[in-house]
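Predict structure. Chain length: 146.
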Amino acid sequence: MNISVHLITSLILAAILYPFIGLYSLWIIVGGYLIDFDHLLWTMYRLKSISIKKSYFYHYNRHKKKGYEKDLLHIFHTVEFWIFMILASIISYRLNLTFFYYMFLITFAGMILHLVLDFISLIKKDHLNARAISLIMWIKRNFRTL
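Prediction complete.
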């Protein structure tokens, strides 16, 4: 998915939510756009590079190759991170930590938007195997000796 699509959709959702939750709506951008920071983490791991430009073109162009690399670990896109965000939202709500509650909940809403767009793109390209869904399963597949 093109990162500009994630930015535009996040800004639109933030603008829609702004009248209801004010500046907390900006957390949508963290979840909907900045979640892709984990792509740079993958590039650092896989290609030993911290170049944002190299990371962008690696991820943007890799699906065009016939033998594209599969099972990439994008840590913020895994089900374990989703569970963390849900639990953090619930705990901060129960502890009456309003700022953290909105931070986790609204960021998670942005993540949902982002992930829906990603999955639509992956389904269209028939590349559902391109990304690891679970951190635990990725570790099991890639470090069998553990």
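Summary: Residues 3-142 form one domain.
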